[in-house]
Amino acid sequence: RGKDEKYKVRMPKFRMAKEYKDKRKSIDDVERNIFNFKKSSEEKSKKMDKEEKLFRETFMYHREIRVLTTATAERSVPSQRRADLPLTAGEQLDVIDAVQGHAVICRNAQGRYGYVLVEHLNFR
């Protein structure tokens, strides 16, 4: 042992009731999660606003954006044009408007908008 350790006073660890310890951990976790949630939701809302503005300019859509129904992508499809929405299999999409014969305007979970062919969607 070194000289510093020789004269070090050791404090006994007090035993805590397991229930109190678990409760304290859960309270701390909740507080941390609340702050992280607020920060990420602000960033996400800014990104969603930016995507919505881009959508309105690209599609010249001046009406209120309302979700008509939700659909699931049956297969992955890359986008052919800038106005098309790239899909991944099993992705949930909000159908905004049915404007053309075989295509609908959809929004994905990231807030991006675009045309999707009805053939690639499963409505339930």
Question: What is the average per-residue confidence, as pLDDT, rounded to a whole number?
Answer: 77
The secondary-structure class comes to: alpha+beta
Please identify the top-level CATH class of the domain at 64-123. Answer: Mainly Beta
CATH topology of the domain at 64-123: SH3 type barrels
Would you report the number of β strands? Answer: 5
Helical coverage, percent range: 25-40%
- Major sheet: order of its strands? 4-3-2-1-5
Q: CATH homologous superfamily of the domain at 64-123, by name?
A: SH3 Domains
Q: How much of the polypeptide forms β-strand, as a percent range?
A: 15-25%
- Number of helical segments? 2
What is the assembly state of the chains in this entry?
Answer: single chain
Distance between the termini: 72 Å
* Low-confidence spans: none
Largest sheet: 5 strands, antiparallel
The whole-angstrom Rg is: 26 Å
Order of helices and strands: HHEEEEE
Which term fits the overall shape? elongated
CATH structural architecture of the domain at 64-123? Roll
Describe the protein in words:
There is one protein chain. It contains two helices and five strands. It has helices at residues 3-6, 18-59; strands at residues 69-73, 92-97, 103-107, 113-117, 121-123. A hairpin with a 5-residue loop joins strand 2 (92-97) and strand 3 (103-107). It is elongated, with a radius of gyration of 26 Å. Residues 55-121 form the Helically-extended SH3 domain. One of its GO terms (cellular component) is plasma membrane.
